[in-house]
């Protein structure tokens, strides 16, 4: 399988909400596992309130399905409670993979 597409979402938690955002992201793993077209899904912590998600896909259709799927819907549902700002979501093209 050739992985050529990615998605990077940077998230900033409201003050005091970092642990809750981390738990939300941990629970999101189950949703990512259920997505057939998502090759890899990483949720990561940069600092006390800074987090991110990085996903990879083999096709543009798979990336689009993810963008329209359950994880973004779940994030939208809790965003006003947990996030200090809208997520910074960027599509990326994978140029090298090990």
Question: Any key phrases for this structure?
Answer:
single chain; alpha+beta; 4 strands; 39% helix; four-stranded antiparallel β-sheet
Give a verbal description of the structure.
- This protein has 98 residues and is of the alpha+beta class.
- It has a single domain, classed as Alpha-Beta Plaits (2-Layer Sandwich).
- It is built from three helices and four strands.
- The protein has a four-stranded antiparallel sheet with strand order 2-3-1-4, with helices on one face.
- A hairpin with a 4-residue loop joins strand 2 and strand 3.
- Helix 1 runs antiparallel to helix 3.
- The radius of gyration is 13 Å and the shape is globular.
- The two termini are 12 Å apart.
């Amino acid at each position: 399988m050739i992985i050529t597409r990615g998605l990077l979402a940077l998230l900033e938690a409201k003050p005091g909400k970092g642990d809750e955002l981390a738990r939300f992201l941990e629970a999101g793993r189950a949703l990512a596992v259920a997505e057939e077209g998502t090759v890899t899904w990483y949720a990561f912590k940069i600092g006390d309130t800074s987090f991110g998600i990085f996903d990879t896909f083999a096709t543009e259709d798979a990336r689009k399905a993810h963008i329209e799927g359950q994880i973004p819907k779940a994030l939208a549902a809790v965003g006003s409670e947990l996030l200090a700002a809208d997520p910074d979501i960027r599509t990326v093209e994978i140029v090298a993979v090990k």
